[in-house]
Records
---
Amino acid sequence: MTQGIELLALDGIPEVSPGDDLAALICAAAAAQGIGLTDDDVVVVTQKIVSKAEGRVVDLATVDPSAFARQVGERWGKDPRQIELVLRESTDLVRMGPGGLIISRTRHGFVCANAGVDLSNVGGADSATLLPVDPDTSALELRDGVRRISGAAPAVILSDSFGRPWRNGIVDVALGAAGLEVLIDLRGQPDADGREMHSTVIAVADELASAADLAAGKTSHCPVVVIRGYRYAPGAGRAAALVMDAERDLFR
Amino acid sequence: MTQGIELLALDGIPEVSPGDDLAALICAAAAAQGIGLTDDDVVVVTQKIVSKAEGRVVDLATVDPSAFARQVGERWGKDPRQIELVLRESTDLVRMGPGGLIISRTRHGFVCANAGVDLSNVGGADSATLLPVDPDTSALELRDGVRRISGAAPAVILSDSFGRPWRNGIVDVALGAAGLEVLIDLRGQPDADGREMHSTVIAVADELASAADLAAGKTSHCPVVVIRGYRYAPGAGRAAALVMDAERDLFR
């Protein structure tokens, strides 16, 4: 039987709080499940626990919404303090839609709903988690942490759920990456017909994030998934490279 | 150790020609690899071999390009007959970009590059494959075929590679589906914080397609991947449900 790719959810990750050592939590959960991490694995971690560990949590009581945020909040029955945070995290508003949905470009260049600002309840207080300041660096640090503890240096991907224009539903994509090439460029290589593949650059980091989400489930909270048996291309890829340059982007 | 999800590429699928019984080819390849298909599997099949089996192949010599297609072809050094086919397969042009790239809406409602028209070489003649007329029906027929031959009725997904606005690289998405719900609606269910998840509808069919692409590789041509161990929601889902309604679509 073929050697396939395995998607293994780690279930022992506790609720994460600011300052927690996420690498240690991941290594402990993997060990408890008998999963000895190796250099060949890809560890996919959901953004939210990274944001929490990094203290990217804002107590909503401390947020003073602008007049515009109040206006949008009142119109749609949304918390104006959340709107305010979304605006602060954005460099560009791309669309505003019914329900107070804001699609914007974040400082990282990602275009997503609500700039990744997620309402949360941390220690009984209404708060919001923000995206990590630099998700690629977060991934790199996580990878270094895992290496220090376990000796193994798997590739690491930070994932988040994004909507897409024209298609219903969200899918997980890569927000940060370390240790692997995020794009696989097959241009110039022959396809099955011997014809050159002109436009085949595959966003493997996004596909890895989506695959991991299948194993993670959404309500059973497994925020970390180990992908085993996928032969990734080792490299210093950064998820920032997934952001399309303005001059190539037909949708700016 | 956790029971994970497995992604198993089938490698015995031969070059497919119009009229071939794809279900039989898939069952034979699975059997040869010792993979006994079950109702619990998801079989992901790349669109191109489905199009070929269904005879959605056009000999470019038979295509008479319009004046517009000639103009676009001349401007960008592209075959005007391919441009002509792209226009014929489109209901709406969404963007035209450098290199003669056309992003359009297909009759199915999908927004993608070149309306899914793919240059190909079938039997030595320059030809193009078009998307299946009704990919959901193609998936359903494939599922019925597999059931007739093997007795098992796995879920079936037809996949294709789509680009995305704002992000580099392509990822595989679901073009057709049979036997499973393509969207998992978690709205109203509590998340880890006990907070209602307001906007969580997951496009699992797209995530399954992306996951399969990791196992398929691109140059090693494994056009069929079996996903094992993913507990899909059985149902009469159709990939057509992944197309966003015009009134909800902020990007029309």
Note: Chain B has two domains: 6-56+132-242, 57-129.
---
Amino acid sequence: MSALAHHEILYLLLGLSILLGLARLFGEIAKWLRQPSVVGEILAGILLGPTIFGALAPELQGAIFPVGEGGLAAAIDGLTTIAVVLFLLIAGMEVDLSIVWRQGKTALSVGLVGMALPFLMGLAVASLFPTFLGLEEGTRPLVFTLFLATALSISALPVVAKILLDLNIFRSDLGMVMVAAAIVNDLLGWMVFAVVLAMMGTVKVAALPIPMVIVLTLAFAFLMLVVVRLLLDKALPYLYAYASWPGGVLSFICAGAFFFAAVTEWIGVHAIFGAFLFGCALGDSRHLRERTRATLENFVSFIFVPLFFASIGLKVDFLKSFDLGLVVVVCAVATVSKVLGSALGAHWAGMSRRESWAMGFGLNARGAMEIILGLLALESGVINERLFVALVTMALLTSMTSGTLLERALQRRRPMRLVDRVTVRHFVSSMKAQTREEAIRELAESAAPSAGKPAEEIASAVLARESLMSTGIGNRVAIPHARMEGLKAPLVVIGRSDSGIDFDSPDGRGARIVFLVLTSAKSYSDQLEILADISRALQRPDAVDKALASKSYAELLALLKVESGGEHAEG
Amino acid sequence: MSALAHHEILYLLLGLSILLGLARLFGEIAKWLRQPSVVGEILAGILLGPTIFGALAPELQGAIFPVGEGGLAAAIDGLTTIAVVLFLLIAGMEVDLSIVWRQGKTALSVGLVGMALPFLMGLAVASLFPTFLGLEEGTRPLVFTLFLATALSISALPVVAKILLDLNIFRSDLGMVMVAAAIVNDLLGWMVFAVVLAMMGTVKVAALPIPMVIVLTLAFAFLMLVVVRLLLDKALPYLYAYASWPGGVLSFICAGAFFFAAVTEWIGVHAIFGAFLFGCALGDSRHLRERTRATLENFVSFIFVPLFFASIGLKVDFLKSFDLGLVVVVCAVATVSKVLGSALGAHWAGMSRRESWAMGFGLNARGAMEIILGLLALESGVINERLFVALVTMALLTSMTSGTLLERALQRRRPMRLVDRVTVRHFVSSMKAQTREEAIRELAESAAPSAGKPAEEIASAVLARESLMSTGIGNRVAIPHARMEGLKAPLVVIGRSDSGIDFDSPDGRGARIVFLVLTSAKSYSDQLEILADISRALQRPDAVDKALASKSYAELLALLKVESGGEHAEG
């Protein structure tokens, strides 16, 4: 605490709180709009950077978020370096090499062709139009060309995995092939990129000759994926047995990631390469416990990752460097080559036409990896700000669209979740009803305006269903429901009763919480998914106690969300 | 990533990996020796700092862990500042104000008297022997005196809480009074210290006059503990309801801690004060979920806290500045005044003699807080390195001894834990035995050397117990046991059987895992605690499956540790 002056500490803490707070706020908004969080996090950075805040109040902005020289700038840089190293660690932990072996040829075909075509198109475009793309005097054209080719050809494994989880097809055969292809893509892409990085010649600690760097990089990758992987698998049980539980293992994982990051930085490729490979080696061990993975992932994804992405917006003026022509060309080349390449690879491996297109759309997501690559190239002076902004835009647009396109291609939809269907408008904190029929009428009344149907019609549909078999599921919960023609969107009304209402439950207890569930007549699965969420959320008696004791709608919603498994209950 | 040169990034990552790895390794060793982790973590820093590593290889040490000017030093400083802010956040979260209200007068009496006596003695010593204590020319004697008085009078709530948890008396009346007294102590101590900090006059961002700083500090504390506390309690359900689960809340908590840390830094007291009070306000909310607390605590305690403590050793040459006379005086004054003061306070509040002494010994632990205070004073030039080293030594010694002294005073002992009693020497991976008697004889054979008794004697004691009632507890587990005269320490032998051995279990299944438990004839509770751990660890059928499938002793131990709740299964 002596290398930083006190005003620098003040600005550091203030800057971090604003950056983190706004990045996550925008990240949450992006999620509500069903977009990847990274979109919101980068936007927050753009808002706080030279583009907006810096244009409005340049002095204040420069004081809080300085660029270039000085202790505060160095402190922020150190922190974002650690952030990106930890981010690549958890990205690597998602890589499961055994999936690649199991999917074998199909994955290889999709991964390789899906990488080769964008790579070749990247080479072609960069060689034909170097000036348009912003090749500056003094940069070697070969490095520039290789960089662009690599940048266009890497998919983002984390984004792909996230989209598959959202669609609930992560564990399907199609999902596994897609993940395996993305892993092949990732590993190869990073290898090539490591070589390009060495050629950029900016990382000069050891100042090794380039062939030496390439040999060392390949040897390092081999060591990590074979030797270190086996050693970690042997060492983990000892760590769990003898170090503090549950936190002790975390320290050694982070220390390992920092160490191997330092090794690759020394070799002359970037630190993130070592952290990524360490993550791969670690994530493969069956001894790694879910709790360790979850703690690491939560903290890194919600503290370090947002800080890193928001900090990107601090470095570049996105408005000044936005070149529409360039953005369109980059997006078009990237998307066409990636979708076609991956689809062709899938087709050649024998997948159906529909599945091949799905593969292409799914793997088109570039996401975070693209942005990290671009940032490194920008900082080594290989590309200029215009091309960087175009690459970031391309990465964001492909990430935003690939989920929707994949949904269309597969005609799948995201599963209905209870927590997305409840609102405070449909919450009756204390029902007046004393009987089952009164309760259903009271809740139908609340549903009527949003459903666009008279309450009477709703109530009779629900009562008709109720007459077939009672919907009291025991544990003081009842879930009357009906499927109705012409309902725009599924709708859930929650009512609480102080006295308890007889819903003919198997355990004979009156219902204190009643969910009225209305879904479209066209779909059975909407109803099934929502009812499943309700019974999962309230299966434990103490969850019902808490639901009855909650003092506000928000408290109740928080409870339902946590108990039903949050937004990504896998499997 | 541009304010730091590439060699600085290399050294930053390398330095962090060594610092974190070694700090935690020593921290784990300290824990095995039943000492607080902080002792090991600080020792690791001393080893890597100027004291040892710097004396052996000054240039290399200075390159990796630079002090003072430069980008790398600033990056490390920024990181340790964030670390200490997050540490005080989680320390604050442990403060439960409702405990203070409930314990009322007793807690106030212990807390106030236990603080007043050391404070007065500190004032006296500092006024009488300023030169011996190292008051330098140019420091105002008043500031020096007040600092020393405060430093001697603060207890360390986290250490006290940890000791009580270890002894399993955290939730007892005595434990609650002790915690409440430590909270009173902590809050008051930090208030006084905030004022002293303002008088040190090093934090000069706003450059407010001192009375203004005092008024602002008190107003800030009031705002945090009353207004912000209520607002947070209202806001948390909304955060849980609408932000991502489980990570979303983490970001906003950290952003909040950084923000209020910045506020106090602006007022002119140190950043940690704001983070601490924010932690108090947050930790009090009943809406804060256990999972959020655990994730935050694990990550901060095992990544940031070790980095912070180890970094202390980097700043000072502990050998050169070690002054035995000074250390003895500081330790004696601190311990005598604190133990007497707290014991007197307890006695006046009507506690028994034994309990009063227990209170004194328990609250004598200074731990981390002392060290942070000392570091701030050192960096503002209020104290010199000799006094700093004496304060650190005092903090470590009081933390190391207070657990043992409290045990003695209460004649309590730490509960026996299964995982502390098993060793690879007493693990029979695949038993030859086919019958119950053979199994007991085979395991007794393994126990004999360590027990210092012939196998025959052990086997007959166990068989005698077995003849009273069978020890097959079902779920493929059996726990034959006996209490024996003259056994030095409890001893557990684990045997696995491939075929299963008939232990007359209630579920009729043969035992595949057999625990032979030998305890001293003097104690019933040793046996009960170990047997309880075994049945807790293996109550789920899949835990038994995993125990049977584990390929090494370490894997089995890791499983037993995790399933039986690690080293601190509370309650």
Note: The first strand of chain B starts at residue 427 and ends at 428.
